[in-house]
Amino acid sequence: MAAALLFGGALLSPLAGLTPASAQDAASPPAGVPLAAPPELFGQPGSPSATRTIDGMVIPNPAQPFAGTIKLNAAQSTPAWPARTVAPQGAPNVLLVLTDDTGYGAGSTFGGVIPMPTLDALARDGLRYTNFNSTALCSPSRAALLTGRNHHNVGYGNIAEASTGFPGYDAVIGHDTVSVAAVLRANGYNTSWYGKNHNTPPFTESQVGPFDQWPTGEIFGFDHFYGFMGGDANQWQPNLFNDTTAIYPFLDKPGWNLITAEADDAIRQIQTVNSVDPSKPFFVYLAPGATHAPHHPTKEWIDRISALHLFDNGWNALRDTIFANQKRLGVIPQDAQLTPWPDHLKKWEELSADEKKLFIRQADIYAAYLAYADNETGRVIDAIRDMGKLDNTLVIYIVGDNGSSAEGSPTGTPNEVAQFNGVTPPVADQLKYFYDLWGTEQTYPHMAVGWTWAFGTPFKWTKQIASHFGGVRQGMVMSWPARIKDVGGIRNQFSHFIDIEPTILEAVGITAPSFVNGIQQRPLDGTSMAYTWDARPDDPTRHTVQYFEMFGNRGIYNNGWYANTTPIVDPWALFSIPPTDVMNSYKWELYDLTKDWTQNNDLAAGMPDKLRAMQELFIAEASKNQVFPLDNSVATRMVTPRPSVVAGKSHFEYTAPIAGNPNGTQPLLLNASYRISADIDVPEGGGNGMLFTQGGRFAGHGFYLLKGKPVYVWNLLDLERVRWEGADALTPGRHLVEFDFTYGGLGFGTFAFNSLSGVGQAAEGVLKVDGKEVARQKMAHTIPITLAWDESQDIGSDTLTGVDDADYESPFVFDGTIHKITLDIDRPQLSKEDIQKLEAAQSAQGDKG
Q1: How far is it, in rounded angstroms, from Cα 662 to Cα 320?
Q2: Nearest partner of 409 among 186, 221, 570, 541, judged by Cα
Q3: What residues make up the domain containing 336?
Q4: Is the peptide bond preceding residue 481 cis, with omega within 30 degrees of 0?
Q5: φ, ψ for residue 772, nearest 5 deg
């Protein structure tokens, strides 16, 4: 070492510039993606302005060897700076847009009646893709989109809140499957994400992390995140994060809405990048909550859409209109057949006048939400155009992470949280109490299933159903004026969410890395779609085989043929208990998609050998991609125990205020007895504020002081509030206030055996002050499954919506002193006899199908 210093030799690592042999072995690109261009150096080597591109096979790229000389004195030495890493010359900016829960036939670009002028304009300047497919559910589709791998291969066989302890279903994206953003960032891009996440394990979502699977962590690789972590969010009062910090920009801002705020922040970020370093390309992932419930557009957009009277003739007439539009636009073949209306859903003419009135209102709000989101996306695109960068921006606009959602019940719901707990208010009550409030901050609404089916025209089924195209077929547009010349064209090649990452990498001119942070990466599963930019509409697809699976519904695509199971449970029947023998309980169908675009003519009976070959192919693909074991349970998986910082604990102590503790890291109090004890000091002339709360306006409970009086409220899905209140205000000074809750059911242990008995049962609560009972009341029912999942647990305040708006406004900070709040939970335990009875009941119910 000393000799090297004395004689001016550069200090070189013995491994500098070498690629590990294992990296070389794993360096083959995914199908359709060429090898990256060799590294290039720009500018004077060693100068502060020197830049370089990298081959990207190993990221972070190995350190550059020092190119100057070092002697004993600086005067005789030569400095040299490592070159900054930049993107390949001419690499495009990338804007990736993804709406939520949007069927193929919803928006105007693919035949729908809901105006989407931003997407229409992109289609005129680019290409419409008519055969682009999702996974049928949100978290899985998003995981596939960002990683380029099949959803089971990255642990997302289901949503994160229903994860189970199997590799394909644990909701943990590993360090061996980093996202496209991490790859782009390592290659000189600025990366930012706006809106919905839903790909971080819930047990890591608190402010104590770990943060590696947050959007700004090393697995996803985004420089900036502005959005919400879970599956949906109240767009008026969201549980919102700026990077990893909870923020509350909506406080004291009437009319604030997250859809606009996301676009504002995206524009701010793009403009910042352009101002600081105009040569640096950006990757923007814009994933608004629209059109997942809650449907929360602004009043301006509700008024605009309602004035158009798009839905007055009902959902059956709407399907006919959409189908005709689709043929006129060429987004379905001229010989495509409209699939029949399902027998188990009412036709429009069978509805009462009250039902029609309510359902039209629901559709107007939904349509306003989609049109509003499209408009805000247009503002982002306008900002890119205004800075002169749209010509070299690849815009990929995907309409829906799955098909239209049927999770609102056949009559819709003013509160989706109620629906997920098995409660649907009757139409009369929805009209009386919620009609005028639909879409405002006072509702958490979802539309009726009839609209869901219509927005999936011309296909059958809906979100959750991976076997049929109503669940997986998404409209998609790509625009890149500098590269795509067949403007206004249509492409019918089969493709999938996993194809987006390889497409972006080919557009940029880089390949997927073999090693990231020393960890060998799994190969991409997708196929680049860049070949379609120069193809004819019906040229052969390069993505020839693809499996589908969700909740036991499954399908297999192979060169124009498609085999799939027939669903045995409606996706809106969230509490159904299907037979557990998933492999043998389902009928199979077979389609020749080259002649039958919409899965309308089942060939299974006449082609048993072809069907058998397709079934065998499914098993082979499923085995490769961690799909087994198959599981068709829905509600039961939502409450399956999973890792958490509170797992196995029943005693909790809080000695300081906390805010924003999410569902995945807070103690669950449903279907259990518990006691909350608050050791507090009440100030002179005071005694107001929250002590302990979980959830909020649409489901939750809170323990607080109101004008000095102790109050406990259970908000039962915004349909009923059960209240305990002391008659007297607390005197100034130290007090112990307690709430004892005794539950009368069996508890969550029941769910381990796919039974819903024993949950949501009656309970009794007792409120005490300094050991003396001050209020006692019974509850006929309790919440069985979930609180409002976009809310949080707070101690000493209530940061989002309140459990009783009549009592207080958030954040309702406690004005006294909390010495300690203690929570003790007594969860009912099942005896061996209970387990045997439940297993027998499950078996009997499963046999009945």
Answers
A1: 44
A2: 570
A3: 93-533+541-558
A4: no
A5: -105, 130
